[in-house]
Amino acid sequence: MQANGVRNDALFLGMAWTLVLAVPHFLFKSSSTWPICILPLAATGLGWAAILVYALRRERRSMDRERRAMEAGLAAADGASRGAVDGMAEVMIEQMQGACTELHRVDELLGHAIEQLMVAFNSVSEQARAHQSELAQAAAAARGTPGAERLRAAAERVASDVDGAVTALQFRDVVGQKLGHVRSELVALEHAMHRIREVSAQCAQVDLAQQVGGLLQQLREAKAASPAAQELMHAGEVELF
Amino acid sequence: MAKSILAVDDSASIRQMVSFTLKSAGYDVIEAVDGEDGLAKAKTKAVDLVLTDQNMPKMDGLSMVRALRRLPGYRTAPILILTTESGDAMKNEGRAAGATGWLVKPFDPKRLLEVVRKVIG
Fold first, then answer.
1. pTM for this entry
2. Residues of A in contact with B103 (CB under 8 A)
3. Which position has the higher pLDDT, A170 or A40?
């Protein structure tokens, strides 16, 4: 709008100047003084040139003002977005640290639970083995009688129940590895957030986007599968080489 | 004389379960808490079988297997890996390191005893 105003000003001044100088030309062109009247035409040309230079300079100054205003606006927006990135990273870091602390507490609770379970298991399994042994001896002594088969089956059930408990009680190791893996991933994310905060304080807007994109790509590539892939506590496979 | 087994695992509950299972079947069990401890104990007393976890601090299972295979008394001794890892890449690495077999946790006591009896009687 401002540029259009400048052009309109230039046109008006140019036309006015032309009229002022063209009048004596047409009035005196048929007289002996006509060559002298060429001068107004030359002056008209010079005038148009001066008007054009004036118009171009005003347009350039106007564009410079618009550019400075735009840069000021971008700088303000850049500062606001950096503030938002920094604030978001800070919140995420706090959340991740909280999650790591909770995972550590879960791990400790599991450790405490398994200690108590193991004490109980040791006591019960000794009694169960003794019971199983008595049942097996009684079955051997009662061989040939109807009760022998029932005693033998009872002894096998006790052994099977104890074996089931041994398999299930290994959950501490499997769960502990999964928890450790999750904690490692949270720590990696926390480091990435710290890095994003450092980068956002240093780089220009375009560089920030590239740096954050690079960090996210590194995180994706570094993500490793948990060593413990078990979903349920069924016994695992066995392979002899 | 009872056969002896070296059980190596950084998890106390796994060592307990392995010891309970093997001792119930009449084997002598020596426990170690990581690869370094396992290697030291294997050098101190010759055992008939080594049963080791893979992911352990200080020295992992496969590193211990490679170190054991360099010892004169363990060039052909049976070494079983007992681990949560079940991927083919890790198994192949175990085979290349000199392991005799690969057992995935959690183990079934009956199945474990079958494998142990198969390799050492």
1. 0.70
2. 236-239
3. A170
Question: Does A239 contact B at CB distance below 8 Å?
Answer: yes
Q: Is the peptide bond before A40 cis (omega within 30 degrees of 0)?
A: no
Mean confidence (pLDDT) of chain A: 80
B44 CB within 8 Å of a chain A CB? no
Q: Which of A172, A236, A109 is nearest to B17 (CA)?
A: A172
Report d(CA A216, CA A222) in Å as an integer.
10
Q: Which two tokens stand for residue A169?
A: 């009680």
Looking at per-residue pLDDT, the higher value among A63 and A13 belongs to A63
Give residue B79's region: left, alpha or beta (phi > 0; psi -120 to 50).
Answer: beta
Distance CA A40, CA A22 (A): 7
| A155, A132 contact by CB (below 8 A) | yes
CB B46 within 8 A of CB B21: no
Query: For residue B60, which phi and psi values (nearest 5 degrees)?
Result: -80, 170
- Give residue-wise pLDDT tens across range A191-238: 888 888 887 777 666 577 777 777 777 777 766 666 666 766 778 889
A163, two tokens = 């074996």
Q: What is the pLDDT of residues A133-160, one digit of tens each?
A: 888 888 888 888 888 888 888 888 888 8
Instruction: Write down the pLDDT at residue A6.
Output: 63
pLDDT top residue among A164 and A9: A164
For residue A180, list chain B residues with Cβ-Cβ distance below 8 A: none
Q: What is the identity of the amino acid at A36?
A: I
**Residue B9 in contact with residue B56, Cβ under 8 Å?**
yes
Q: In sequence order, what are the beta bridge partners of B5?
A: B29, B49
Does the domain spanning B4-120 belong to CATH 3.30.559.30? no
How many other CB atoms are there within 10 angstroms of residue A102's CB atom? 10
All residues of chain A having their beta carbon less than 8 Å from the beta carbon of residue B91 are 239
